[in-house]
What we know:
Layout: E1 6-13, H1 29-33, H2 41-57, E2 62-65, H3 73-78, H4 85-95, H5 97-104, E3 115-118, E4 128-132, H6 144-155, E5 162-164, E6 182-185, E7 194-199, H7 219-228, E8 236-240, H8 243-247, E9 257-260, E10 263-267, H9 274-282, E11 290-294, H10 301-307, E12 313-318, E13 321-327, H11 328-331, H12 334-345, E14 351-357, H13 360-363, E15 373-379, H14 380-385, H15 394-407, H16 420-436
Parallel strand pairs: 1-2, 4-5, 7-8, 10-11, 13-14
Antiparallel strand pairs: 1-15, 3-4, 6-7, 9-10, 12-13
Helix pairs in contact: 2-15, 4-5, 15-16
The structure holds N~2~-(3-carboxypropanoyl)-L-arginine.
Amino acid sequence: MPNTNAREVNFDGLIGASHNxxxxxxxxxxxxSNAGQTSxxxxxxxxxxxxxxxxxxxxxxxxxxxxxxxxxLGFLRxxxxxxxxxxxxxxxxxxxxxxxxAAWSASAMWSANAATVSPxxxxxxxxxxxxxxxxxxxxxxxxxxxxxxRALRAIFHDDDKFVVHDALPSQPRFxxxxxxxxxxxxxxxxxxxxxxxxYGIDAHDPMTVSRRFPARQTRASCQALVRxxxxxxxxxILARQHPDAIxxxxxxxxxxxxxxxxxxxxxxxxxxxxxxxxxxxxxxxxSNMVVLEARETDFSIEDxxxxxxxxxxxxxxxxGDMRLIAPSEVSENPRVxxxxxxxxxxxxxxINDVIYMDVRESMNNGGGPxxxxxxxxxxxxxxxxxxxxxxxTDELYDKLVSCVNETYPDTIAPEDLTNPELATQCVHxxxxxxxxxxxxxxxx
Length: 444
Ligand code: SUG
C-alpha cells in the first residue's frame, strides 16, 4: 500500500564556527581554488539558516544537524602534539599545516555526506536505515562519523523504527561518501522506490579509472549498504561515475546528477554506464520516470561544476508540483540558466519554478544547496518518533540566528588557526548550538 503520509525531511548541517578555506579536498575545484582565502563563518551559517528557513516557509519539514566541535584538539593530541592548547596548535602548524587545518575543518556542514538513508518503504524490516559515511578519502572528513553517529542515534533513537548502523570499515576498499552518491526514485516519497548507488571505483573492474583526481566511492561500499539496509536487490541500481567527469571536478555524483520522486536531472556525461542505467530506470515495471538530460550542447561539465546546477535541491510542494532550489551561481551562467528556464517552461515535467539561494561561503569550498542537506523520508509516525528539538520552527530559527550572531567569529584567515582563544570560541559555539538543539549529549 502506498504511504501517502510520508514526506521528505531535509536535515541541513548547520555551518560550524570554524568554517575556513584550507584547500583540503583534491579533486574539488572550488576548495582548491579558494585555498588560503579568508572565510566568513558568521555569514556562512546565516546563509545556511536562511536556506533552511526558505524551505520551511515553503511548507516543507526542515531539520537541523549540529556542527561538530572543531578544532578537534583531541585529534591533534592523538598525533603526538602536547602541551597547552596554544602549544598543540603551534606545533601542528610547524609540523604540517594541512594536519592543523584538518582539525579545524567545519566539513560536517555538508550533511549530504553524513550518511546514506533508506526509507522504511524500501527495507524488508520496514525500518528506516541510516549508515554514517566513513569519509575515508580525506583526512579532515575521516573522523566526522564519530560525532555524526552519535547525533543520528540521538535523533533517530527509537529502535523499533530506525536502525543507525556503524560506519563501514574505515578502509579504502569501503570508501563511502554517503547520500551524495545515492538517489532514490519513487512515484511519491512514501511509496517503495528504486535506489541508485553511484560509485567511482570498483576493485574488480579493469576499466580506466580517473587519473587526474581521486574517485571517492567504491562499488564494494555500495554493495555493503544495500545488504545492511535490507534492500530488495531487484529495486537497486549500481552505476559507475564517468572517470572523465571525476577528472573534471565531479568528486561526488551530486555535482552532476540529482533526482526527486520520479524526476531525474543529470548531465549526459555523468555515467560510464549511461545506456544500461537508463534502460534499468525506464523499465516501466519499475517506475514512471521524467528524465531531464542536459546535453553537452546545452552546457559543458565545466559549466556544471562552476554553476553547481545539479547540486540544486528538487523539492515536492504538492503532488506533481516541484521547485528547484538552485545556487545563485546558476543565474550567473547564461547557458545553464537558459537550460533551467526551459525546464520551468516545459509543462511535461513537474518542476514549476526556481528559487535561487545564496550559499556562497559554502560554495567556495565546493558545497552547494544539496550538499548541505541529508534527505530522510519519514512517515508521520516516524516523524513523531524522532527527537523533536532538531525540527526547524520560527522560534528555533530565531534562537539559532541569535546564537550564531553572538558566538561565531566574523572571519577566519589561515594564520588564525594557531589562535587558542579562537579555538575555544569555536568549540564553545558548537556546544551552545548543541544545547539549543537538545543534543548536548553528543559531546559527552
Ligand atoms: O568533501 N569540501 C567538501 C565539499 C563536500 C560537498 N558535498 C557534496 N557534494 N555532497 C568535500 O570536498 C573543503 C574543505 C577545505 O578545503 O577547507 C571540503 O571538504
